User: Fold these one by one.
Assistant:
Number 1:
Amino acid sequence: MKKNLHFYLFLLCPAAYLSAQPVAAAAEVVNYIAWTQTPPALSNVDVMHTVRYEYTIPQTRIVMTAIVKCSSDGSTIGPIAQAIINPTPATTETPVAVSGNLYVPPGTMPSAQLPDGQFYRWEASIRGNGNVLILGISSPLTINGPLGTDSFAAKKMALYPNPVADRLFLPENLLNRNISISDSSGRIVFSGMHSGSFEVAGFSPGLYFLTAESGETGKFVKR
């Protein structure tokens, strides 16, 4: 009898019947951000690093990666390097993967020379209007002086010619390895496998940074 009643109500006024039926709630989209690869805890000045994380957001926001200097209470004094990413809205089922390069600029004060209590850290954050922090993650970072004879020196690669106008040649040990190239703002302009040399004629003039999957880094100037 109850089934027949539903059937007759549907025949008499299908729109009203359907609007009265319970609707399954949509899955809630939550803010989420996490490292997919923990950033290095140690760096020298004048070195490029690739930072990888993923995020989920309910609407378009500013997503920012930065190296910041902090006071003893953990509050941010200011960034020494940062890259802003224009994100695409995502759902909890499909987080957005991010890979960005950050350069520890020359002249950065080594951690050992900072005033008492101050320190550096990596940060990745989701921000709203007015740069208001919605959600963020961080990881500690110790910065040493410029490259010398320590283990970081082995990570530097020779690129030639440098400055370069059209074709850049890379070391043979990086043949068929994945590399990424970013400009001075941290924006990645190329990511993929290389075959011994790389065409840069279409690049805008300026300073660029190259990072290999094996950890080697280098920089070059496009004329």
Number 2:
Amino acid sequence: MTVIELIERCSARLHEAGVSFGHGTTNAFDEAAWLVLWRLGQPLDALDEVAEQPVDDAQLAQVDALMDERIATRRPAAYLTGEAWLQGVPFTVDERVIVPRSLIAEPLADGSIDAWLNERTRQVLDLCTGNGSLAVLAAMAWPEVQVAAADLSTDALAVAALNVQRHGLADRITLHQGDGLAAVAGQRFDLILCNPPYVNSA
């Protein structure tokens, strides 16, 4: 069996099981490709290069076990792999945070939000930062800006700290714990980003 044949088989399994998507993928094939490539230790953009490579019995068993878990638990693929992507940037995630999805990410990445800034913009707040993805994207987009990332959840901030370190931005992003703006009381900001939680706790 080749990699692409395995992906197609896994895609059929996910489809037949009625698995829902939306945490990084929108269909069974893309989800299967993500999980198979991750389990095989291949880059997620390497499908064309590895599609015809053979899969041995040990690798097949590992992929099957991962698919069994995805189907049985319905845990999002991002939680199974410990990673999610936003605008092409990888972020560490686990059950302490919501898998990052935000309409704010695209204008951050493509520069269309720049109209809200000017040459004096130096302080940006990411309120309800979660895993810190918007704070990281903001720091990447605006190298001259300092970013404060605030959240009520200490668990979420622990994951955000991993992502700040992962992207080498500890000197540009500070983390603050507290309820809403109380987390940064007394501070002033030129721009506030906010993508608050939008789902109830399970």
Number 3:
Amino acid sequence: MKFFPQKGKAYLAFFKPFDVLCQFTPEPGSDKGTLAEFGFPPDVYPVGRLDADSEGLLLLSDDARMNSRLLDPKNEHSRTYLAQVENVPAPASIEKLESGVDIKGHWTLPAKVSLIKEEPHLPERGKPIRYRKNIPTAWLQVTITEGKNRQVRRMTAAVGHPTLRLVRVAIGALQLESLGLKPGQWRQLTDEELALAFQW
């Protein structure tokens, strides 16, 4: 699905850190950071969202077409996450995640899920996860095509493996690793990089 950028518009990739809200105004009484702290140009807004306790690739733009093209469920746009979960999921649990699980009456669409044998190379999180000495952890790669609220976390919890850390590593074919960003950094995407976000 091709997307033609408009001249003069901003198409930004941001490595959202942990404990940062996907909004520019703070929540009353909250100590979490906001996007206003990172020096974005005026009039950009996040395309989609990541929960405050999730990290990784977030796109921002002042081009309103981005929302409908990337977020409309009928487009089945893919997003890929690395999820660190409690215990090591059995093949049957991974099959359930792939075929769909019931989250409060909603059956999730089919997903691609695989167990990662080696711990991925990710920056240290500002606040370490809660380790429990007698409970091992494992990493899953999860690709979904819908974006329900806290979906990946709810999916892994539904099969008995709560998510401890969640990092979005790709939007479409645009890989966070290829962008050279550290947590809290952002930059304008090239036309070629932007095109990757629309490939799935």
